[in-house]
TrEMBL record:
<feature type="domain" description="D-isomer specific 2-hydroxyacid dehydrogenase NAD-binding">
    <location>
        <begin position="103"/>
        <end position="273"/>
    </location>
</feature>
<keyword id="KW-0560">Oxidoreductase</keyword>
<dbReference type="InterPro" id="IPR006140">
    <property type="entry name" value="D-isomer_DH_NAD-bd"/>
</dbReference>
<dbReference type="Pfam" id="PF02826">
    <property type="entry name" value="2-Hacid_dh_C"/>
</dbReference>
<protein>
    <submittedName>
        <fullName>2-hydroxyacid dehydrogenase</fullName>
    </submittedName>
</protein>
<dbReference type="InterPro" id="IPR036291">
    <property type="entry name" value="NAD(P)-bd_dom_sf"/>
</dbReference>
<keyword id="KW-0520">NAD</keyword>
<dbReference type="InterPro" id="IPR029752">
    <property type="entry name" value="D-isomer_DH_CS1"/>
</dbReference>
Amino acid sequence: MCILYMADPADAQKWRDCLSTLAPELEFRQWPDIGNPAEVHYILAWEPLADIAEQFGNLRLLYAAGAGVDQFDLARLPANVSLIRLVDSSMADIMAEYVLFGVLALHREILAYQEDQRSGRWRPRPIVHASQRRVGVMGVGNLGRAALDRLQPLGFQLSGWNRSLKEVPGGHCYVGPDELEAFLGQCDILVNMLPLTPETDGILNAARLDCLPHGAGLINVGRGAHVIETALLSALDEGRMGGAILDVLVQEPPSQDNPLWKHPRVLLTPHVASDVQIEGGVAVIVENLRREREGMPLLNVVDRSKGY
Ligand code: NDP
């Protein structure tokens, strides 16, 4: 029984060490040294694989090395192979830390003050109490819920928007497409934490950004393709939106002529809000080995019908 590692070679040794300690029964192989492909029951990969079914006839589980699974074409994955996300609480904690940073930066208008500093302007703005600031999270899943939990003690007015009804600590959960505009209309700070699916691709377009209150801020930690960048730039340039903190972009890295690089009201980070944590990922793999042995449902299986 072996796991074939096809993710970042720089991390291979850490995965190997951690797996050999916690799952010594699992042989670790690293691409391209696949050995006998019939012995490969598990693959840990970042990139989509062509011909996976033909190459690895005994493959049971495909572990996604990244946090999202939008890079996999689920339709091309054999029906008997489950795709598994390696999410754990430490990944959610790290993401919540980034969201907290972004919300506080937008709440305290740090991007505007940074622009003032660069222009030599000393211009205090009215202070807004956290209780008067409405923060909305799109996608109240594993990561969205952890971010909301971290924000709650700061006293913001919280809300969420989700496909199904979820508990939002101290706030209201808006549900489904019919309630999206109402949700956006009350977000002074909008945090996008959705997975990328055909339904959510381009969801933050010009019309939806127009629903936000005047001067609203955006934090995007979902996927770049959720936001129509030209629409965001227009809203920022026209002052309809106050700022954006973007960890993900349509093209990563963006081309040098992308105006987002130098926009005074935009803070870019290179897709570092969170990531799969090796110890947490290995814990999922080990737990799933146990569950497979005992015939129990596996952890973190991607729902093919939903795409996440
Ligand atoms: P989950 O699957 O736990 O949560 C996704 C949530 O989004 C669910 O609550 C789901 O609703 C909701 N959702 C999905 N589709 C829709 C829709 N069409 N309308 C309304 N709500 C919808 O995922 P995670 O929280 O673990 O991760 C979310 C995403 O964050 C990842 O897919 C990835 O793209 C991104 N990410 C980014 C990172 C970064 O570094 N920037 C790092 C980690 C993740 P329901 O509960 O009803 O199913």
